[in-house]
């Protein structure tokens, strides 16, 4: 039994040293985070459900290649929210580009908005970027 315990402990030490084969630098297992949320409405204040919210996060050191890309849909009340996790990097101030595409067969126009948010280490309070978007009607 003692031999098996030592083999198990040795395996844990080796895995910890190799970071489980993930190739992530020690101390950066989870990266700095920020939260992005908002609401999408039309000019009359009606929530826009099922609008596609595409987002990209850029670091100041490389403003042409996004560090994070993703998309989500608004819910029934036009709200959306995503956790932005920048794995493998140190905290930074990021530029967030958000593109809203209205649901199919909608008379609303797409829109793009950008702002900045602080990506903080996971032991600090998470910064939240709120981007509310009002989509214009094609006839406006």
The CATH C-level name of the largest domain is Mainly Beta
Helix content: 10-25%
Shape designation: elongated
What is the CA–CA distance across the termini? Answer: 77 Å
In CATH terms, what is the fold-level topology of the largest domain?
Protocatechuate 3,4-Dioxygenase, subunit A
**Helix-strand sequence:** HEEEEEEEE
CATH architecture of the largest domain: Sandwich
Structural description of this entry:
- This protein is mainly beta.
- It folds into 2 domains: 1-28; 31-135, Protocatechuate 3,4-Dioxygenase, subunit A (Sandwich).
- 12% of the residues lie in helices and 40% in strands.
- The chain has 1 helix and 8 strands, in the order αββββββββ.
- The chain has one helix spanning 2-18; strands at 33-42, 52-58, 68-73, 79-85, 92-101, 111-119, 127-130, 133-135.
- The strands form 2 sheets. Strands 1, 4, 7 and 8 form a 4-stranded mixed beta sheet that branches. A 4-stranded antiparallel beta sheet has the order 3-2-5-6, with no helix packed on it.
- The longest helix has 17 residues, at 2-18.
């Amino acid at each position: 039994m003692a031999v098996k315990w030592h083999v198990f402990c040795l395996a844990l030490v080796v895995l910890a040293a190799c970071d489980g084969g993930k190739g992530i630098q020690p101390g950066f297992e989870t990266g700095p985070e920020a939260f992005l949320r908002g609401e999408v409405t039309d000019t009359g204040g009606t929530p826009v459900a099922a609008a596609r919210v595409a987002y990209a996060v850029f670091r100041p050191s490389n403003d042409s290649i996004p560090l994070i890309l993703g998309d989500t849909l608004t819910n029934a009340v036009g709200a959306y929210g995503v956790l932005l996790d920048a794995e493998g990097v140190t905290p930074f101030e990021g530029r967030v580009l958000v593109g809203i595409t209205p649901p199919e067969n909608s008379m609303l126009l797409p829109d793009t908005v950008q702002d900045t948010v602080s990506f903080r280490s996971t032991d600090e309070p998470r910064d939240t970027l709120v981007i509310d978007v009002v989509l214009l009607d094609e006839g406006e």
